[in-house]
Design a protein that fits this description.
With 109 residues, the chain is mainly alpha-helical. The chain is built from 2 helices and no strands. The protein is rod-shaped. The termini are far apart.
Length: 109
């Protein structure tokens, strides 16, 4: 045995693995194998969070779109009613038989 400590252990393990490159590749492979379940689980959690956020945003947008559509329909109806009311000809007063001249007409006789 020599007095090289950790370096001697590394050199001996590398020699058994078939060289330094093979030993480092084996260490990397082992690290990836151990880390994969954690990384995969974290990826699933992130994917689930993204998916639930996307669903929430889609529902919110859909609700806002429906609200805007309802408001637009109500505004169309109000405009239609206002146009129809203003486009009507002068109405004859049913009790007196006189024409209603509107707000600009003079006093009735």
């Amino acid at each position: 045995m020599s007095n090289l400590g950790g370096y001697q252990d590394f050199a001996t393990a590398a020699k058994r693995a078939g060289g330094v490159d093979s030993f480092i590749a084996a260490i990397e492979k082992d690290a990836v194998t151990k880390a994969f379940p954690k990384i995969f689980g974290a990826g699933l959690l992130v994917a689930a969070a993204v998916a639930s956020t996307a669903v929430a945003v889609a529902k919110r947008y859909s609700g806002l779109r429906d609200l805007r559509e309802a408001q637009a329909n109500e505004a169309r109806e109000q405009i239609k009613a206002a146009v129809e009311t203003s486009a009507k000809p002068d109405v004859t007063d049913l009790e007196t038989g006189e024409e209603d001249g509107g707000p600009d007409a003079g006093p009735k006789r």
